[in-house]
Amino acid sequence: MAWVYIVLAGILETVWAFYMKKSAGFTVVGPSVVTIVTMIMSFALLSIAMRSLPLGTAYTVWTGIGAVGAFGVGVVVLGESATPLRLIAALLIVSGILLMKLASPSE
Q1: Where is the chain membrane-spanning (predicted)?
Q2: What pLDDT does residue 106 have?
Q3: Are 49 and 2 in contact (CB under 8 A)?
């Protein structure tokens, strides 16, 4: 179940990163509220996952999902560039997440 929590926490990290961008430095109320609520939810799920996952694994997977998710949202929704180098970097992050999963003890 910890892996489900960590994946959900990573997805919520992507959500709060997007809405933080939309909040324009916390000057727009709606996106600011979504940012804060999803941050709290993301941290809560991360903390639950850390009860049984090693610190390094949980944190790496959480930030990796958030980073790749934010990159994807930036490209698809915000029209940011998807240069070959940026795509390779995202692929390397995903590879690192998968290796962390494979290297972690089973729950």
Answers
A1: 27-46, 58-79, 85-103
A2: 62
A3: yes
